[in-house]
Design a protein that fits this description.
TcpA-like pilin, rod-shaped, seven-stranded antiparallel beta sheet
């Protein structure tokens, strides 16, 4: 008769022999499952990285295209309108500033001509300036950067630059006893500065036919300014003897 231990021996041995195999198979399955999960996670990460790279590349292209994009017609029109407005406002102001800065230099050249003409006039002659003309002044300032001299030596044209197409002419006055310098088309910005400079070497001054200095009238800058008309329309006549 078999004892209890012997009757249970095969069952116990079979059980003890198969259970470790089952445990080993489960462990392998778990390892394979973990590896599959890791592969899936790796693929997902790769796809996510690829999408991120595509988005970055697409964003970089969009930004590059935005940087390379030109101006629209509306933007160009607005800028053009602003430039034109500034030009309309600024050009007259710049022109006035240029004339103001030019007045002292023009006055100095004219005063130098007056003094030089007086010094070179013949002594004791009743008509010392009978033959004076614009050509005498043109020869003095032909190389000057202040005046613009054109024409021939016998018939020159001298522009003073204090107004559009403003000319300087020199001619005898009082039957050759004196000479007159006429400035035409003088801008109001040069008034009364040009008269204030030349009143020191002039015996008489007229603005548009109005006497502002002579033997009985003392020069007044305020009175001269009041007689000037706005624009390049004023005419000054300086007479010296």
């Amino acid at each position: 008769m078999l004892n209890q231990s012997q009757s249970q021996g095969p069952f116990q041995c079979g059980y003890q022999g198969n259970f470790p195999g089952l445990l080993k198979g489960d462990s392998q399955n778990r390892v394979q499952l973990q590896m599959s999960q890791k592969r899936v996670q790796l693929q997902m990460n790769q796809k996510r990285d690829q999408r991120q790279m595509n988005q970055n590349r697409s964003g970089g292209i969009d930004r590059a295209l935005q940087r390379q994009r030109g101006f629209s017609l509306i933007e160009v029109s607005i800028v053009t309108a602003i430039v034109l407005l500034l030009a309309i406002i600024g050009i007259p102001a710049v022109g006035s500033y240029v004339i103001e800065n030019k007045v002292p230099k023009v006055g100095e050249e004219l005063a130098r001509f007056v003094l030089q003409t007086k010094v070179n006039a013949p002594n004791g002659a009743s008509e010392p300036y009978l033959g004076i003309a614009t050509s005498n002044f043109a020869n003095l300032v032909r190389e000057s950067s202040i005046f613009s001299v054109s024409g021939t030596e016998a018939s020159p044209k001298v522009l003073h630059g204090l107004g559009k197409a403003g000319e300087v002419t020199v001619a005898p006055a009082d039957l050759g006893a004196a000479f007159a310098i006429t400035l035409s088309n003088v801008n109001h910005v040069a008034c009364p500065a040009i008269a204030s400079v030349l009143q020191r070497v002039s015996d008489s001054i007229k603005v548009d036919g109005n006497i502002i200095k002579d033997g009985t009238t003392n020069y007044s800058a305020l009175a001269t300014e009041a007689l000037c008309t706005k624009g390049d329309v004023n005419t000054f006549v300086f007479t010296a003897s």
